[in-house]
Structures are given as C-alpha cells and as structure tokens.
C-alpha cells in the first residue's frame, strides 16, 4: 500500500512511518519540515493550513525532486527515493516529468496525526476538514489519530472523558476539547471515508510489544494495572493494522495489552 502520514515528524507520525515501512508499505511523509533518508519514504513539505498544498500533495502533483517512479512489467508502480532526483531504472509512468513525483494514483490511506503546542482548536478543526475534503475527492480513506477526550468514560457513557477529571486534569481540558471538536468535524463531513482513533489517556514513547486491545468509543484501561495507556510504538501497530484491515466502527480506541 501507499500510506500518506501527515504529521510525519511527530511522536506518533514517525512511529507510524517506521511501522508501515517495516511492513513493506510505501509512505508519503508530510509535514512542514519532513526529514528524508529512507528509500521507502517520500518526504513532502506541506503546511496543513494550506488546503491547496494538501490537495496537491495527496494527489501527487507536487514535484519533490527527490523521487523517481517506475512502472513494472505488470503495470504496478514502484517508488524509489533518490538523493539526486535521478529517474529509477525502468519505464517512467506516462505524464511524469522527472525530476519529480506524479503518482498515477493517490495514496491508499491518509493518516492525520498533527497538533500544535499549545493546543489550537481552530487549527485542528481546519486541518481535519482540509484533509477530509482532499481525501474525499481522491477516494482515499482517512485515519485520524485524535484524542482520548473524545471518548466516553468507562462505566459512565454520558460523561465525555474530556469532562472527566479522573483522566483529564484541568490543564489538559482545552487539548481534550479540541480533540472532541476534531471528531465532530469528521462526523459532520458528508463525503469522506474516515475512522477516528482515540489513544488512551496516556500515550508516550516506549516499547513495541505488538500487543494491544481494541475498543470503540469508550476509554479502555489495561487489565493489569488499570491504567489507560499505550506506547506510541504499539499505537502505531494499531494504526497500521487498521489501515490494512479496516474495521466497521468509525470511532475506535486501543490500550496496552499485557503479555499474560
Ligand atoms: N492521550 C491522548 O489523547 C494523546 C496523547 C498524545 C498525542 N495525541 C494526539 O496524537 C496526535 C499526534 O500527536 P503527536 O504527539 O505525535 O504530536 P507532535 O509530536 O507534536 O507532532 C506534531 C506533528 O504535526 C506536524 N505539524 C504541526 N503543524 C503543522 C502544519 N501546520 N502543517 C503540517 N504539519 C504540521 C509537525 O510537523 P512539522 O513541525 O514538521 O510541520 C509534527 O509532525 C495528535 O492528534 C495528538 O493530539 C493524543
């Protein structure tokens, strides 16, 4: 698959890219200052505040000067990043002017995993709408890595986690509410094919165990210590699993799963 990750340099986005590449997927790495280096990762500098740039990046019409594309004998398309922008061996796809990138098809999925510090609700809502609009036009599925605040409280479905001090201290309430506004933006979008993944309450870099428990719209806690947490590495596993095998629910969450 080809997977676009918007927020490529972030805690979550960088791990999603590592996970996707390890599974053999091609990745479009989108952020304002994407790094480069991995031949399976195509960096594309784009500001999500610029809807036209996002559309072009996802449609593949931005020339990066770092990517060569090759059409195989079977008609499938392989991508190889080069340091020089030289064209990869093989036949260049019709319409491509090297150096540059004009993929003949959009990515199979877009992961939206951006945020600002401090939290900016308008930015998040605008970015989400922009990506949903562009993806809907391209027929590409969107997975939004959102916030735990948009979940229901365990044992109290009418209490949003954003309003639950057991999980969201006052200083994080604005962030949590921004995540809820982001979910509402998805729900209000008439055309896009999206899934909103709420992390558990705590999300930090850690170990990749490859294990997690999946739920829908209610916050989960781990069965061993009762904490609502997962490593960013295991969240990335869940993200790529969902992209590879989409479920039917639109709002999902995951939590750490102990080994026994
Ligand atoms: N427990 C929870 O609910 C929880 C905890 C942590 C994170 N999260 C969520 O997970 C998601 C990812 O968070 P994170 O921790 O990975 O964030 P992060 O480490 O702060 O990374 C943010 C990413 O957004 C990109 N970005 C920011 N502004 C941008 C713009 N204008 N245009 C394009 N890209 C832009 C940044 O790249 P550039 O600077 O290069 O543009 C960076 O790649 C967010 O939705 C966050 O709210 C949830």
Please tag this protein with its features.
26% helix; Rossmann fold; 260 residues; single chain; 24% strand; binds NADP nicotinamide-adenine-dinucleotide phosphate; globular; 5 helices; alpha/beta; two-stranded antiparallel ribbon; 8-stranded mixed β-sheet
Write a short abstract of this structure.
The protein is an alpha/beta fold. The protein has 5 helices and 14 strands.
Task: Furnish the topology, listing elements before pairings.
Blueprint: E1 2-6, H1 11-22, E2 26-31, E3 41-45, H2 51-59, E4 67-71, E5 77-81, E6 109-112, H3 121-138, E7 141-145, E8 152-153, E9 156-160, H4 173-188, E10 194-198, E11 202-204, E12 212-215, E13 229-231, H5 232-244, E14 251-256
The chain binds NADP nicotinamide-adenine-dinucleotide phosphate.
Describe this structure in words.
About 25% of the residues lie in helices and about 25% in strands. It has about 260 residues and is α/β, with parallel strands linked by helices. The protein has a single domain (about 1-60, about 105-255), classed as 3-Layer(aba) Sandwich (Rossmann fold), CATH 3.40.50.720. Strand 6, helix 3 (about 120-140) and strand 7 form a beta-alpha-beta unit. About 40% of the residues are buried. NADP nicotinamide-adenine-dinucleotide phosphate binds next to helix 1.
């Amino acid at each position: 698959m080809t997977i676009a990750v918007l927020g490529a340099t972030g805690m979550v986005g960088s791990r999603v890219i590592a996970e996707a590449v390890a599974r053999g997927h091609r990745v479009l790495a989108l952020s304002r200052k994407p790094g480069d280096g991995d031949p399976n990762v195509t960096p594309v500098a784009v500001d999500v505040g610029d809807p036209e740039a996002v559309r072009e990046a996802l449609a593949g019409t931005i020339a990066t000067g770092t990517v060569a594309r090759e059409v195989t004998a079977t008609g499938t398309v392989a991508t190889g990043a080069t340091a020089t922008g030289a064209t990869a061996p093989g036949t260049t796809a019709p319409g491509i002017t090297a150096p540059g990138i004009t993929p003949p098809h959009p990515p199979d999925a877009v992961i939206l995993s951006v945020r600002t510090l401090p939290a900016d609700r308008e930015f998040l809502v605008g970015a989400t709408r922009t990506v949903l609009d562009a993806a809907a036009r391209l027929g590409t599925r969107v997975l939004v890595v959102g916030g735990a605040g948009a979940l229901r409280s365990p044992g109290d479905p009418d209490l949003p986690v954003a309003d639950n001090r057991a999980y969201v201290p006052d200083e994080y309430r604005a962030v949590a509410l921004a995540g809820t506004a982001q979910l509402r933006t998805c729900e209000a979008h008439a055309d896009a094919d999206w899934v909103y993944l709420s992390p558990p309450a705590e999300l930090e870099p850690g170990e990749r165990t490859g294990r997690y428990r999946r739920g829908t719209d209610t916050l989960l806690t781990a069965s061993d210590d009762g904490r609502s947490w997962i490593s960013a590495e295991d969240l990335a596993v869940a993200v790529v699993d969902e992209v590879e095998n989409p479920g039917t629910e639109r709002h999902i969450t995951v939590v750490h799963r102990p080994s026994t």
